[in-house]
Amino acid sequence: MNQAIQSMSITIDDHTQVGDARRRGINIANQLQFDETESGKVGIVITEAAKNIVKHAGNGQIIIRTLQQNNMMGIEILALDKGPGMDLRRCLEDGYSTAGSPGTGMGAMSRLSSAFDVYSVDKKGTAVVAQLWSTPAKAAKDNDVGGICVPVAGESDCGDAWAFHRYGNRVSIIAVDGLGHGPMAAMAANAAIHAFQTNPERAPADMLRMVHGALLSTRGAAVATAVIDMDARQLHFAGVGNISGILFDGDKIRGLPSFNGTVGHQLHKVQEIIYPWPERAWLVMHSDGLYNRWKMDDYPGLLRHHPSIIAGMLYRDFQRGRDDSMAVVFKENR
């Protein structure tokens, strides 16, 4: 199974944008051949998420991305704000509200979703993630990998991309930052993802060489690839260009080196490095659309949450604002 990531970002700062977000989400669900009932659930979840942003935070963002496992399609809704935070236990109870509404929103979102998670810190805002599938009875359980991929303001095409592939007790991940932004950068990123999907079980160094050949006719990209082997308890990593890789192995934080060059143009050195993968480890890879000065100590309890929540919080607080943004997070569920 492999998955390519397609997403859109919707700014929410007044009630008029709630309906627009709902319509855009339902349109995606219809394109993915959700039936009327499941498309309706998508609309309800997006509506409640957007209304919560307007009521409680004033403004925020909803990121919608497509999901795929084998022949099953899904949608992930990620809502981000910098509002006052919330009492999670009470907000998930029907009838509780701090804004004069019926107070059924958060509980309804949880019940309608195949996967649901919330992270909130007092005076520091909230992140909510919900996943819905075209066939909920067979909902996929890829809750150990997640992320964001958002084009810079003014662009509809994102020059950053990521994808993953699960095989046995291994996961391979690729993170790509096409040079610049806009359609030409997206072309390079899409070519890299396509190359990854043709043979996703290659070792990271071999993967970089294969992707290099696929990008020769494009403007090129920064690329990092990783394979997490849960049986051998190892992380294999290789990168070229400005993709940041960070391994958290419980108590230690380790930066993963990428070498100078541009995949598709100048591939000076490719080196695969192997690290231990402890049971509490997690991995993040992100483009230079995000500053890399973040510290997990500023986000109490965040590592216990869904990987898309983690990626979303990093995007919310550390986006540069002048380039596409991408972050992918993997943490082993045990």
- Average pLDDT number: 90
CATH topology of the largest domain: Phosphatase 2c, domain 1
Question: What's the multimeric state?
Answer: single chain
Radius of gyration over C-alpha positions, nearest whole angstrom: 19 Å
SSE succession: EEHHEEHHEEEEEHHEEEEEEHE
User: Can you count the beta strands?
Assistant: 16
> Which ranges are low-confidence, i.e. pLDDT below 50, for 5 or more consecutive residues?
95-103
How is the secondary structure organized here?
Blueprint: E1 2-4, E2 7-12, H1 16-31, H2 36-57, E3 60-69, E4 72-81, H3 88-91, H4 105-112, E5 115-121, E6 125-133, E7 145-150, E8 160-167, E9 170-178, H5 183-198, H6 204-214, E10 221-229, E11 234-240, E12 244-249, E13 253-256, E14 273-276, E15 281-286, H7 307-318, E16 325-331
Antiparallel strand pairs: 1-8, 2-3, 3-4, 4-6, 5-6, 7-16, 8-9, 9-10, 10-11, 11-14, 12-13, 12-15, 15-16
Helix pairs in contact: 1-2, 2-4, 5-6
Describe the 3D structure.
- With 334 residues, this protein is an alpha+beta fold.
- It has two domains: 137 residues, 2-Layer Sandwich (Heat Shock Protein 90), CATH 3.30.565.10; 187 residues, Phosphatase 2c, domain 1 (4-Layer Sandwich), CATH 3.60.40.10.
- Helices cover 27% and strands 33% of the residues.
- The chain is built from seven helices and 16 strands.
- The strands form three sheets. The protein has a six-stranded antiparallel β-sheet. Strands 2-3-4-6-5 form a five-stranded antiparallel β-sheet, with helices on both faces.
- A hairpin with a 3-residue loop joins strand 5 and strand 6.
- Helix 5 crosses helix 6.
- The radius of gyration is 19 Å and the shape is globular.
- The two termini are 20 Å apart.
- 48% of the residues are buried.
- About 3% of the residues have low confidence.
